[in-house]
Amino acid sequence: MGNKWIGTNKGLVKLIGLNSSTLFDSGSTGLNINDIRGIAEDQNGNIWIATNGGGLIEYKGNH
Asked: 36: which residues sit within 8 A by CB, 6+ positions away?
């Protein structure tokens, strides 16, 4: 909770506080997660990622 998610044309960035971040891209996930067009969090804390050409991806990892 309290993390920020940023979608880019290179992948998904998870900002953790002010000094830490994680990049999720096709190389690190094996998914076509490049060119993100939208991000939403549902009531269960799952992250939904809409991509251009890679479909809709649900992320259930540790938030």
From this structure: 7, 8, 9, 11, 12, 49, 50, 51, 52
